[in-house]
Amino acid sequence: MMDARFYGSGLAKLEIPTELPGNLLVIEGADGVGRSTHIELLQGWLEGQGFAVASTGLVRSALTRRGIESAKEGHSFDRTTMALFYATDLADRIEHEIVPALRSGFVVLADRYVYTTIARGATRGLDRDWLARLYGFALIPRRVFFLRLDPDELIRRTLRRGGELDYWEAGRDIGLAPDLYSSFRKYQTLMLGEFDRMAAQYDFTTVDASRSVEDVQAELRREVANLLDPTLLTPAVDVSDD
Amino acid sequence: MGINDSHGFPGRLIVVEGIDGSGKSTQLSLLQTFLVSEGYDVSFTEWNSSPIVKDTTKRGKKKNLFSPTTFSLIHATDFADRHERSILPPLQAGLIVLADRYAYTAFARDVARGCDRAWVRNLYHFATRPDLALYFKVDIDTAVARITGGRIQIKFHEAGMDLGLSPDPITSFRMFQGNVLGEYDRVAEEFGLTVLDGSRSVVDQQREMRRLVKPILKGLGRARAPRPAAAPSVAAAAAAPAR
């Protein structure tokens, strides 16, 4: 159960009750901190406890997915255009996925939300107040978990798994440094600064993501159980018939 | 730079506004011909034409995926892309930029569709202020008469059919565009748009438009010498006895 409140004027012509039976939980953090792993683990756990769970993530909307992907492949994607295109994606998913699921009582696990796109815009020099007002249509989540990781650890973690530093996650479009490593490190440091700045403003629950998957997941489950149903943490009743 | 500040670039930005059937596009096209014949370098941009956003808008319209909020956002995205590629560079290079619809279209239309006024204005805050913004004001009957005259197709969203006001496109158009006109009046006042009577003859409107454009061209260099033969009204003026 959560209040249907918005950061600003909300969504035009959307009839919505003041209270929604579901819960919107957001997991924020850089690529490589383990967002999708933790969402998968939370989803399995919650479903095991009998909850209906839906997940959604950035740029997954039926409306804008292809358009944003092809814009990112092109050579020119201006920062304002990018911010507005991401906002279109999010508005579409809030209206067509998130709100309907919340009405039906689902726990919605969102893999990133407005905060990533606000941070991307601010890092590219867009006005923070303009970005905050732009997202006046966004539903305020029940809770935002910010998986926080130092950029150096983020780089090592990405590379030791055989991954590559991503062009956009390195902010290569804004010319921060001549090489990929330095650019990635600078960009992620700026992004982290934006997230830290937003943590108080948007009431993030900051989770230290430098720990093991088990430890981080255990903390997330404790927090989620406190929100949804504290009895979830009591040891499961043995239902085996031996 | 912003919707309330001059751009300070060497070029000039002239925009036309008005509902479908107001005659604004006809007038802008006549103005373009005139300015080119006068030797100016001119570039033209129109609402809803960014190559980045085009496919998304087309898909959204075809499958009816838009809500008032996403409809507003996708047009702002389209505008931002054109502002970056097709509006600022020619202004910086000293051209005359002619824009068929500008941010004011969103201020009128998206608000008539139910979006919050302050929110929509914030979306376009980055847009540079035009040097001249002309609003071609017509009443609904004139617009409908021109549209049903067959020259213009009535469009689904232009008629506000997405709002479910009426199953009949003409009735829906009247209801929706009636609200748009109300918002345009407010916008014209708030942003100082120059209001033209769009119900007058094409020639009368074009004469007034050229008269309004003239002062803002002061100090702007021509790329070529004027070719008076291509611009009859100017040729006629030149033929009149000098005082």
Give descriptors for this structure.
heterodimer; A: 242 residues; alpha/beta; Rossmann fold; two-stranded antiparallel sheet; 8 helices; 7 strands; B: 243 residues; five-stranded parallel β-sheet; 9 helices; 5 strands; globular; disordered C terminus
Explained architecture:
The complex is a heterodimer of chains A (about 240) and B (about 240). Chain A has helices at about 35-50, 65-75, 80-105, 115-125, 130-135, 150-160, 180-200, 215-230, and strands at about 1-5, 20, 25-30, 55, 105-110, 145-150, 205-210. Chain A contains eight helices and seven strands; from the N terminus they run βββαβααβααβααβα. Chain A is about 45% helix and about 15% strand. The N and C termini of chain A lie far apart (about 40 Å). The longest helix of chain A has 25 residues, at about 80-105. The model of chain A has no long low-confidence stretch (mean pLDDT about 90). Chain B is an alpha/beta fold.
Number of separate helices of chain A: 8
Q: Remind me, CATH topology of chain B?
A: Rossmann fold
Average pLDDT score of chain A? 91
Order of helices and strands of chain A: EEEHEHHEHHEHHEH
Q: Roughly what is the average pLDDT of chain B, rounded to an integer? A: 90
Give a short summary of the structure.
The complex is a heterodimer of chains A (242) and B (243). Chain A has helices at 35-48, 65-73, 79-103, 114-123, 128-134, 151-160, 180-201, 213-228; strands at residues 2-3, 19-20, 23-28, 53-57, 107-111, 143-148, 204-208. Chain A has 242 residues and is of the alpha/beta class.
List strands and helices in order, with pairings.
The complex is a heterodimer of chains A (242) and B (243).
Chain A: E1 2-3, E2 19-20, E3 23-28, H1 35-48, E4 53-57, H2 65-73, H3 79-103, E5 107-111, H4 114-123, H5 128-134, E6 143-148, H6 151-160, H7 180-201, E7 204-208, H8 213-228
Parallel strand pairs in A: 3-5, 3-6, 4-5, 6-7
Antiparallel strand pairs in A: 1-2
Helix pairs in contact in A: 1-8, 3-4, 4-7
Chain B: E1 12-17, H1 24-37, E2 42-46, H2 54-62, H3 68-92, E3 96-100, H4 103-112, H5 117-123, E4 132-137, H6 140-151, H7 169-191, E5 194-197, H8 202-213, H9 232-239
Parallel strand pairs in B: 1-3, 1-4, 2-3, 4-5
